[in-house]
Amino acid sequence: xxxxxxxxxxxxxxxxxxxxxxxxxxxxxxxxxxxxxxxxxxxxxxxxxxxxxxxxxxxxxxxxxxxxxxxxxxxxxxxxxxxxxxxxxxxxxxxxxxxxxxxxxxxxxxxxxxxxxxxxxxxxxxxxxxxxxxxxxxxxxxxxxxxxxxxxxxxxxxxxxxxxxxxxxxxxxxxxxxxxxxxxxxxxxxxxxxxxxx
Length: 198
What we know:
Number of helices: 3
Order of helices and strands: HEEHEEHEEEEE
Oligomer: single chain
Radius of gyration: 17 Å
């Protein structure tokens, strides 16, 4: 696909939620699930990669919500770090330990990079905070992809699959083959930091 504007909408195949002409996403290798604790101890393939970072809420504009800024947990009051620089990445267990023991660390998460086999699909449809009800669209996509999924801090859902995008990721449109409705969600396979904790 030409271009790299992350806000661009791209038509998608009606047979699976991915850009046209992309290979069919493969299962992530763990049982499909959604709505569980977002700490992914059982997502062994993802946890095995040293691509984890810590981050901190920082207010850049008083009129807007805080940003999740990647930080060096050894110097949490220092400037933010470059999420794409591997020298700051760490194993999953180390990132989680900083999150649990350092009150200045607000989150930990995974950095997608070119060359790893993973793509994350970010769905903004919300799980009901009171009832826990999962929107039908999320259920359909999780069942269709049959892969690892977890609830995000804002009560959306991310699904992890094996596969690559020909582009840099961003907003993609998918047409539900059963209803004809178009849904837009974000897909990332490189240069994205995605948190797993509130």
